[in-house]
Amino acid sequence: MKKTFPIVLIALVVWLAACAPKAVAPLPEREPLAADGVQEYGGAPLATAASPGSAGVQEAPAGLSVLERRMVIKNADLQLVVTEVQGKMNAIAQLAEREGGFVLSTRLYQASATTGATVPEASISIRVPSDRFDTLVAEIEDGAVEVLQDDRSGQDVTAQYVDLQARLKARQAAAARLEQLLQQASDTESVLDIFRELESVNAEIESLKGQIQYYEEASNYSLINVTLIAEEKVQPIQVGRWQPKGTVNKAIQSLIKFLRGFVDFLIWFVLFVLPVSLLIFGPPALIIWAIVRAARREKARTPPKAGG
Asked: Tell me: the pLDDT tens digits for 168-199?
């Protein structure tokens, strides 16, 4: 009975921690976001400060709970045609560092152009402060020969973040209870059982902290993926002074002109030529048709003459 009691007590502690409320109350109504992406409360924007162990988390004023913060993860995928691939990649990396961000990865490789020549291509991924996201995307695109792709997305992770905070608080409370039981345990078997359960709870706590830190960093530092394509790769094929692309464009333009002229002709024919023709030639045609029909009927009624 003495050995069973600590095990039952441990199970009770874990059950109470698991029953801690995970549901999050609905988010209260908020005023619109400020221009820089920071949530405003009562006309005053939230201050941005670095909390211990995080990479700069927006903190609410005194009296505001974690429920009253919005966390949005912003991402962008860009494809740019540039004249100088390596130089543009270095400029993007310098831009990220200048703005307080950092480079995640870079890759420079060779690709084949339409002419068969080998040209450089590159890809670079950076994280930059989210409040400068749109401005920096515009600055990266500035100077490009052509922007082939500009995909931007935003994910509101406020609810997930709040749920993780609630779960972390519950597991930390469970760990504190288990530590108290560990200090009070007298026999070796109870100590080992409590210690194993405490290790499991601590592992969950570390996992929850890692997820919370990810959301904090991802919402404070937006991800921008850029693919850089050399201008030579997208240039049209040219043989001497002849460019197939130019011939194709001329053929398409000629086809469009023909179709436009043909449709115009049909419109004129149906709405003008046909009605006028019916008005001019319709009555005479009806008179001629009536005369011919009457002659045929008269001929049909006349009996043939008997032979002599």
From this structure: 999 999 999 999 888 888 888 888 988 899 99
**Helix-then-strand count for the chain, H and E:** 8, 9
Backbone angles phi, psi at 174, to 5 degrees: -65, -40
Rounded-to-integer distance, Cα 74 and Cα 36, Å: 13
- What separation in angstroms does the CA of 33 have from each of 7, 28, 205, 273, 284? 51, 14, 32, 63, 79
Positive or negative: CA dihedral 247, 252, 253, 254: positive
Question: What pLDDT sits at residue 57?
Answer: 43
Dump the DSSP string for 115-175: TS-EEEEEEEEEEEEGGGHHHHHHHHHTT-SEEEEEEEEEEE-HHHHHHHHHHHHHHHHHH
Q: What pLDDT, in 10s, does the model give residues 29-65?
A: 333 333 333 333 333 333 333 333 333 444 443 333 4
Supply the pTM of this predicted model: 0.52
Residue ranges of domains in the chain: 10-21+54-235, 241-267
Closest CA relative to residue 201, chosen from 2, 7, 17: 17
Question: What letters, b where the CB count within 10 A reaches 16 and e where it falls short, cover 187-196?
Answer: eeebeebbee
- Which of 66-70, 108-112, 155-159, 277-281 is predicted with the least confidence, judged by mean pLDDT? 66-70
Q: How far apart are CA 141 and CA 126, in angstroms?
A: 14
Q: Which residues in 179-253 belong to E strands, given as ranges? A: 221-230
Establish how many alpha carbons lie within 13 A of residue 59's alpha carbon, considering only the half-sphere containing its beta carbon.
11
Instruction: Give SS3 for 225.
Output: strand
Number of Cβ within a 10 Å radius of residue 218: 20
Tokens describing residue 170: 């519950």
